[in-house]
Amino acid sequence: MRKDKAKTYLETLKERQKESRVYRIHQATGLTLAEILEDEKHKSLYMKLAKVHDAQKLIELAKDVAARKNVRNKGAYFMRLLTKDDIRKYENIRRYENKKAGHGSKK
After folding, report:
1. Residue 5 to residues 8, 10, 12, 18: CA-CA distances in angstroms?
2. Count of CB atoms within 10 A of residue 35's CB?
């Protein structure tokens, strides 16, 4: 009797593990990127990127990569384009301005 309860509990846990629990917008964006790029293995990476970068630009870039038929590893190609693209340049400029503004207020 006890083994049956343990089995059903473990099965319940396995089923719950399959379900997605999205609480924030960057999590939903990250899951969308992983789905578009067919790269479920790195969904946490895409969630981190969605926290920092503009979600719309990331999705546009991912769709562009997914549309290219001759790309073997869409996730790697996406990251390569992301490092070259203006998205990173814009973010670096924004970080620099934030550091500069914060640095001047300390005495």
Report:
1. 5, 9, 10, 20
2. 14
Query: What are the distances in angstroms from CA 82 to CA 29, 31, 57, 62, 90?
Result: 16, 17, 10, 10, 11
Note the pLDDT tens digit of each residue in 42-61.
999 999 999 999 999 999 99
Give the count of domains, the chain: 1
pTM of the model: 0.65
- Name the nearest CA neighbour of 65 among 57, 89, 52, 51: 57
Helices 55-67 and 25-36, packing angle to 10 deg: 10
Q: If we measure between CA atoms, which residue out of 64, 106, 69 comes closest to residue 87?
A: 64
Domain that holds residue 29: 2-104
Is the sign of the CA dihedral 48, 36, 16, 6 positive or negative? negative
CA-CA distance, 20 to 31, in Å (whole number)?
Answer: 9
